[in-house]
Amino acid sequence: MACRDNPTETLLNERDPQQLVYVIDDDEAVRDSMGMLLESADLPYCCYSSAERFIAEHDGSQRGCLVLDIRMPGMTGLELQQQLAQMGSSLPIIFMTGHGDVPMAVEAMRHGALDFLRKPVNEESFLERIAYAFDQESGDWRQKLDRDQARQRIDSLTEREHEVFLLVAEGLANKAIASDLGISERTVEVHRSQVMKKLGAKTLAQLVRIYLQSE
Amino acid sequence: MCSPVSGGDYDRLETLLKNLPGMAYRCLNLKHWPMDFVSDGCYELCGYQRHEIESQQVLWGDFTHPDMIDEVDRKVRSAADSGQPFEVEYRIIARNGQEKWVWERGRAVDRRSDGVVILEGFITDITDRKRTEAALVRAEAYAQAIVESALDAVISVDDQGAIESFNQAASSMFGYRSDEIRGHHCRSLAATSFYREFDRHFQRSQTPTKIPLTSIELNGCDKHDNEFPIVLSMREILDVGEKKYVILIRDLTQQRLAEREVREQRDVLAHVDRLNTLGEMAAGIAHEINQPLTAISMYAQSGLRFLRRPQPQLRRLEDALEKLSQQAHRAGAVIERMQEMTRPHQSHQEDVAAEHLLQEIHDLGEVEAQIRNFIIVLRLDDDLPRVKCDPIQIQQVILNLLRNGMESMRANHCKPGSKIVLQARTTPTQVRISIIDGGLGVSRKLEKQLFQPFATTKASGMGLGLSISRSIIAAHGGQIEFNNNKTVGATFSFGLPRQPD
């Protein structure tokens, strides 16, 4: 089958089923045709006719990527990008730009846009960019999951255990920790094994990774 | 002093002389004419009493103007020698220094024993007459100068219309010398096709009326049969024994040329204006064309993908093609609009049936409305009259207003199938055309800049249409008015002048 040979297709077939393409464009025909193209590539999508409408539904749980028209009446693409950044969203954004919008596109890239595509859009590179965005977002998502998990576990530590955890993660020996905290080396050992247990770490290396993930 | 008349007669003569406006005299034809008799009129004439003159303390020659005394002397002498009466007009200087013109008539009546000729005569003051004459001469010269230097043809004719005088301007306008045209009927200065009109005007000029005569415009015809536009007015010359008329004619050729040039330049300017704005709008147009192109390209790609599936999805392919075709029409409409604006259009107002015009515009607009999923409702009064307008321009204006309305409705998220109304109502002087939309309405902020190029609320609009539309309606003697509707949207309207039935 022809499409199976296509690397983009393969990549997209391995996507996370929770990922959606959010198309935001004020032009109905552009929205509709883009939806149809995504449908033809078996990508789930959701269309919005304005940035405001998207913002109204956004709650941080959305997965996938944004395909965003840079020039719209009301809230522009750039404004939406900034607002999402303030809300802590890490959804990758692919901008669609018109003829004279390159300066705006550059501005968007500076603020962390994944890419921009000139209209009329080349379909292959469009789907390719979406695959890339999904990939990126999956990584971000996993990282975010790990971070959330690590933080959750760290939060379960007592105050004293947390102090011990931080010093262990910095690489201090039990003896040094004991003298630092003004407690016995034996007590440090008890806390330390408690920390390892609560964090689910079997080795020192695992403990350090959890520390780094939480940052 | 020798008196040829008896006592009673003398008294009567004295009375007569006293009442004459002037001075009777008898003198010797010697240097400065010593007088031995003058009548009482002498005082009024020269300011000296009879006795001062008769005693010859002052001589008549003393009053005579030195510039003229020799001439007077020569005339008198030659008349006296031949025994003929003489008549002279000359100036005197009175006692108070005042200069006067006098007229004198006299003759030699006798001869003294020493052979000196005795003259008798009468002298009277003609200063007033002279002054009037001079004024008359001046006025005539003045009138002549005006007539001859006038840029307009000034022609006088008799009551039959025969030309009597023809000024310089008339000669150069019509190519006739004044002597070759004299006596011809003035009608021959008009082009043949205007004879009837000319005659009617000539007749009207002959009817006594207090109403100032209006001028008429017609074609003149010169000696070489060239026709040219003229404006002509005719007037009776008052206070002459026989009726005469003066005709003033102005050549309108230059004026007509200038008018045409202005008109042409205005059309060119309007065209340049549109092109300029077009240049500024390049980005806007690129955007407008780019949108359907983007959609077309994606529909095409989607179609291919549906087709290439292991089980081709023909239904979806069909959808894609259908939508693709719509978008191609949309792009075409954008280009058409551009062409409408770039095409130089010579404004040409004609008599048009309003109903037909609006029906046609409705049909044209319907194509665009379908793309947007809206409906144009045509609401016309019965028996709409004919209007005077440039149908192409009015079509441009109404389509533009419809488009604006539909864009605004789209921005207002009107449902598919929403209506926009194109309405025409008859008023006593106009057909009032309104476009009533269900869009966002005109905000206070927008109101101020509504008619400026590039003011737009539309994402895909060019913001230009209204400024052009406004100038088109202004050229039709009206203006575009707008109101926000009570519930939703706005109404834009303008009037077209009714054609008289």
Strand residue percentage of chain B: 15-25%
Give the beta-strand count of chain B. Answer: 17
Gross morphology of chain B is rod-shaped
- Report the largest inter-chain contact: A-B, 28 and 35 residues
| Distance between the amino and carboxyl termini of chain A | 46 Å
Q: Quick one: how many beta strands of chain A?
A: 5
CATH topology description of the largest domain in chain A: Rossmann fold
Strand order of the largest sheet of chain A: 2-1-3-4-5
Written overview of the protein:
The complex is a heterodimer of chains A (215) and B (501). With 215 residues, chain A is α/β, with parallel strands linked by helices. Chain A folds into two domains: 2-142, Response regulator (Rossmann fold), CATH 3.40.50.2300; 156-214, Winged helix-like DNA-binding domain superfamily/Winged helix DNA-binding domain (Arc Repressor Mutant, subunit A). Chain A has helices at 7-13, 28-40, 51-57, 77-86, 102-110, 123-155, 159-169, 174-181, 185-199, 204-214, and strands at 20-24, 45-48, 64-69, 93-97, 115-118. Residues 1-7 of chain A have low confidence and may be disordered. Chain B has helices at residues 7-19, 41-46, 50-54, 60-63, 69-82, 127-149, 168-174, 178-181, 195-206, 253-280, 282-307, 314-342, 354-372, 391-411, 444-449, 465-475, and strands spanning 23-28, 35-38, 86-93, 99-111, 117-125, 153-158, 163-166, 216-221, 227-237, 244-251, 350-353, 375-380, 386-389, 419-426, 430-436, 481-484, 490-497. The termini of chain B are far apart. Chain B has a five-stranded antiparallel β-sheet with strand order 2-1-5-4-3. In chain B, helix 11 packs antiparallel against helix 12 (314-342), helix 13 packs parallel to helix 14 (391-411) and helix 14 (391-411) runs antiparallel to helix 16 (465-475). Chain A binds chain B through residues 1-3, 26-30, 32-34, 36-37, 39-41, 49, 71-73, 96, 98-100, 119-121, 123, and chain B through 283, 286-287, 290-299, 301-303, 305-306, 308-310, 316, 319-320, 323, 326-327, 330, 410-411, 413, 457-460.
